[in-house]
Specification:
Order of helices and strands: EEEEEEEEEEE
Distance between the termini: 40 Å
Strand content: over 45%
Structural class: mainly beta
Number of strands: 11
Length: 124
């Protein structure tokens, strides 16, 4: 099994940047596709970004495209989400997820392992 731990959330103003990290356990990290999801109060969990096993292919929700960048460092068993030009509507709990297949997915039900989440709050 895989354990995931997010970090890097916080409170910032609109237009600022944050970098989230997701640390994974085990030596199988490089074989897993990874993703970031977020959930705002009263809303369903939504897809943010995904990355395949090698980091060569990335995918983004339209709402974050051009502002967020997903990356991974398999040697460090860590995935990142660089968030720039943050908006109040980005406020949510952000979750790291892993999938035991090498290709990416958009549906949270297609992911097998989840972190506990990290709060991101953007003030206007």
């Amino acid at each position: 099994q895989v354990q995931l731990v997010e970090s890097g959330g916080g409170l910032v103003q609109a237009g600022d940047s944050l970098r989230l990290s997701c640390a994974a356990s085990g030596r199988t990290f490089s074989s897993y596709a990874m993703g970031w999801f977020r959930q705002a109060p009263g809303k369903e969990r939504e897809f943010v970004a995904a990355i395949n096993w090698s980091g060569g292919s990335t995918y983004y929700a339209d709402s974050v495209k051009g502002r967020f960048t997903i990356s991974r460092d398999n040697a460090k068993n860590t995935m990142y989400l660089q968030m720039n030009s943050l908006k109040p509507e980005d406020t949510a709990v952000y979750y790291c997820a892993a999938r035991y297949y090498s290709d990416s997915a958009y549906n949270p039900n297609d992911y097998h392992y989840w972190g506990q989440g990290t709060q991101v709050t953007i003030s206007s």
